[in-house]
Amino acid sequence: MKTNVLFCMIFIFCSLQYFTVVVHSLEYDVGDTKGWVVPQPNASNIYNEWASKKRFQIDDSIRFKYGKDSVMVVSDTDYKACNSTQPIFFSNNGNTIFKLDRSGYFYFISGVSGHCERGQKMIIKVLAVEETSPSGDGNTPSSSGAASISCSSIVPMVLFVVARSAGLL
Ligand SMILES: *[C@@H]1O[C@H](CO)[C@@H](O)[C@H](O)[C@H]1NC(C)=O
Ligand SMILES: *[C@@H]1O[C@H](CO)[C@@H](O)[C@H](O)[C@H]1NC(C)=O
Prior knowledge:
Its main location: membrane. InterPro entries: Cupredoxin, ENL_dom, Phytocyanin-like, Phytocyanin_dom. Belongs to the early nodulin-like (ENODL) family. This protein has helices spanning 2-22, 46-52, 76-81, 140-165; strands at 27-29, 61-65, 71-74, 89-91, 95-99, 104-109, 121-126. By secondary structure, it is an alpha+beta fold. It folds into two domains: 1-20 and 150-169, no CATH class; 26-145, Cupredoxins -  blue copper proteins (Immunoglobulin-like). The strands form two sheets. Strands 4-3-6-7 form a four-stranded antiparallel sheet. Helix 1 (2-22) packs antiparallel against helix 4. The structure holds 2-acetamido-2-deoxy-beta-D-glucopyranose (2 copies). One 2-acetamido-2-deoxy-beta-D-glucopyranose is lined by residues 40, 42-43.
């Protein structure tokens, strides 16, 4: 009878682990309620302060909400220089969802002349996979595979303990 309870617990444990791995991509609103705007002169670092409080993971998304403005992804050199002549990514539709599809740094600036210089820019660091799951190699299917492997290695162990305490071994 106790074995049933145990199987039930193992099942729940494994389902929870699967759940946390699969539902880990999040969407963040850049600047929270303020959106993507030119910062006040006394708060020109607001976007990097906002970003530094988050732990971005691969496949998370960030949403920029703005009026007559734009979002660009640029190189680190162009970020430092506020140079908007060679964007890697550009959008000006007012509601830009950008997927963080790899680990490392993303450099965002406003493409409107003078806005980046006034602090409408942001560096996002996306954590490497190693920092979240030790055995995954990038995408979600392989991460959840890793979770089920660790679960299936726990099951025989638990069965052994149960069998022993039941006097079968
Ligand atoms: C910046 O100045 C504005 C008004 O000019 C004020 O409302 C705001 O509280 C100030 N922010 C900080 C962080 O000092
Ligand atoms: C921006 O980058 C381009 C290409 O590297 C360069 O030709 C241009 O001079 C740069 N502009 C500024 C303002 O730094």
